[in-house]
Amino acid sequence: MPVPCQQAAVVPMTVSRVDRSFERRLSALVNAREPGVLQGGRKGVEKESLRVTPRGRVAQTPHPVALGSALTNAHITTDYSEALIELITPAFTETWELLQFLTDLHHFVYRHLGEELLWATSMPCALDGDASIPIAEYGSSNIGRMKHVYRIGLGLRYGRVMQAISGVHFNYSFPDRLWPVLHEAWRASSAGQDFVDEAYFALLRNYRRHGWLILYLFGASPAMCKTFFKGREAPRTLQELDANTYYAPYATSLRMSDLGYRNKSQAGVSVSVNSLQQYIRDLSTLIATPSAEYEKLGVKVDGEWRQLNANILQIENEYYSFIRPKRTTRSGERPTKALARAGVEYVEMRSLDVGVYDPVGINQNKMRFLEAFAALCVLKDSPPIDRQGERELDANHGLVAVSGREPGLELGLDGRPHELQSWAAQLLEEMQGVCELLDAGLPDRPYSAALAVQQAKVADVSQTPSARLLKELETEGEAFFHFALKMSRQHRDYFRDLYPPNDRQVEAFAKEAEESLVAQRTVERGDRVSFDEFVAAWFAG
Question: Is the pTM of this model over 0.90?
Answer without folding.
Answer: yes
